[in-house]
Amino acid sequence: MELIDTGIPELNEILTGGFPKNNSILLAGSCGTGKTILSEQFLFKGAKDYDEVGIYISLSEPSDKILRNLEPFSFYDPELVDSGKIKFLDITEDARLVNLEPLTVSGIINMIASIIRDTEATRVVIDSITGICNSLGSEKKVREFIFELGLQLNYLNCTTILISEVPPMTHQYSIYGVEEFIADGVILLGFYEDRGELIRTLQVVKMRGVNHSRKKHIMEITSDGIQLKPMFEL
């Protein structure tokens, strides 16, 4: 199995090399756990060092706000955005929605698939799968969407991070309880409290085809991006 660089050296080490190529990874966490930064670091690493096209498909924030929040980080390179090597799309404002029924399963799936094909992206972030599911309205539609998305991603030859928003201080991987079953990997971001301070953590729950560590790690967000260290070093 070919592994690709996650952009985070310590995470590569945990995964004995990186993410399995063309797999989908569910990145679960509550607000403030670092889901967006980890995903962005993954995209910029691919574009900067491996000449890969990356795309960030957002339902939660407009692209101009995402770019402003990226400016303090050393891995951010505006030239990669200007050249189209990395694209940020707010699909709630995408013109293609005018000609589709965005609240139907087929409408959303077709739009995501066409965006990935048109951009020839090999690294993809969907932020968030929870937001899409919430817009569908019924549990039946949610289940249909999740399983159809899993099938489509298998054929699109891209490595995808699916961001999953979960309640804080829980061990949930998703809201609807089925997202983790279509994903090839699950990474859980969380917090624990130490002397009144919230400490970020990262744990790889599963990664098919990889003999990975399941130990929980401390996750720090620095100007260079995410850094990890074993909990016993804290």
Explain the overall architecture:
There is one protein chain. By secondary structure, this protein is an alpha/beta fold. The chain has one domain (3-233): P-loop containing nucleotide triphosphate hydrolases (Rossmann fold, 3-Layer(aba) Sandwich). 34% of the residues lie in helices and 28% in strands. It is built from eight helices and eleven strands. It has helices at residues 9-14, 35-50, 63-70, 78-82, 105-119, 129-136, 139-155, 179-182, and strands spanning 3-4, 19-20, 24-29, 54-58, 86-90, 123-127, 159-165, 185-194, 197-207, 217-222, 225-230. Strands 5-4-6-7-3-8-9-10-11 form a nine-stranded mixed beta sheet, with helices on both faces. Helix 5 (105-119) runs parallel beside helix 7 (139-155) and helix 6 (129-136) crosses helix 7 (139-155). The longest helix is centred in the middle third of the chain and has 17 residues, at 139-155. The protein is globular, with a radius of gyration of 17 Å.
Topology:
Layout: E1 3-4, H1 9-14, E2 19-20, E3 24-29, H2 35-50, E4 54-58, H3 63-70, H4 78-82, E5 86-90, H5 105-119, E6 123-127, H6 129-136, H7 139-155, E7 159-165, H8 179-182, E8 185-194, E9 197-207, E10 217-222, E11 225-230
Parallel strand pairs: 3-7, 3-8, 4-5, 4-6, 6-7
Antiparallel strand pairs: 1-2, 8-9, 9-10, 10-11
